[in-house]
Write the structure tokens for this entry.
Amino acid sequence: MGQDHIVTTLTNAIKVDRVGHAYLFAGPRGTGKTTLARLLAKAVNCTNPDAAKRPDNTCENCKAVNENRFLDLIEIDAASNTSVDDVRDLRDKINFSPSQGKYKIYIIDEVHMLSMAAFNALLKTLEEPPPHAIFVLATTEIHKIPATVLSRCQRHEFRRVPVDEIVANLKHIIKAENIQADDDALIQIARQATGGMRDAQSLLDQLSSTGERITLALAQTVLGTATSQSVLDVLNAVNDHDPAHGLESIHKALDAGADPRSLARQIVEYLRGLMLIQMGNANQVEATADVKKQMQAHAKSFSTSDVLRMMKAFNNAAVDLRGGWQPSLSLELALAEVLDAPAESSPIAVSSPSGTPNQPKPKVVADTRQGVSAPQTATQPQAESEAAPHPEEKSAVSAGDVIKAWKRMSASLPKAQANLSALMNSVRMIDMHGSTLILGLASDVLVSKIDKPDQIEAIQKLIKDEFSADVSVRCVVTNAKGKIPANVAQDGMVATAIQHGGEIVDTQE
């Protein structure tokens, strides 16, 4: 199932009697490699006079293959027979004529497990096999197969089985076995199998043993994909920037017996749902109505860049081995990384003219490995002038105040202005020059989308309602990757260096 590109090729080869002497079947587990190898063995030995009807499942040879008593079908597990002596034994016996059929078929499963000496011993046989022998090599790790072996085989790449084909197969099974299952649950099983038909059938078998009707909720609970309250608590802690609550939620879940990697995977799956919602694919999210409602709220609270950053951090925790001695370590590191790193959706304060002049002046040290240099503000007069506030530029509203209120103002917009809310969450920098609010975005495209009269007026109204201050708004492109210290003017050398990809590596008074 799901391998029509290979089935068609082999079927045509059988019809015209041009079967190769060595095949390499490569692809993910559970996609039909060994099954197709057995079908090929049955087809080439079928005695039906019409080649187009082979295998017919009615001749003696076909029946023998189906009943596992066909002597000329030899299956070898390379994982258990890895030595050169095993291959030499095979090579010595291969010259004997077939016992029952026309061909002797050698299926070597997990062939990548053979030693290099064993591969070398196999090479000559693959290059000049006896006319009655056909080799089928199967592997899940084709990159481990020597090029000399690859060049001697017809190579067929097996694909992951599409979800709809897996679901169709599962429906056939539940009908034959009289199992009660909801369509949503079957889709969840198919997606959990990640393209492996065998895995999907195993999961269905596992769920059917509960004796209950297989519902989506049951499937998520048994398979460990249900969104737990711990996941929601961790995401709420991130949204509220409350590390104590986040750590408490993680430890509470682990103390209750949750597996750290499973919890990390649940968080990643939940974040993936947020990403799908933000990209307009909410119908692809498999979740209960209550969880979907929570997802909608979180999808609005976080920007897409926030979600992607969190997915990367917690996905690393799901595969991280560093926490072996301390189960919670990987999750704690992921949470700390998410809370500590500046979110791209959080505006960056470039300067704060109205801020206090007593703050320490930053010193930007050159990173000579990257060839980036910037002035040392503690010693150079020009940097001093950058850091000094300019009386004529003072405003009743500071950049810091706007930044603190920015997310709240964005969330307060009505549904009709959801587009503006998303654009406001994409702002990467906020600065105040006098009564001018400067918004920095990552590209000209984003600037063109937000810099429209009706949207600028809406932002001005938000500022007016929040701070009782009238401001003008200017939108600019910025590629600032990190936070620019306070009291550094946007048009200064330090800010310019950072906006062009520079990095502050040290700060001294």
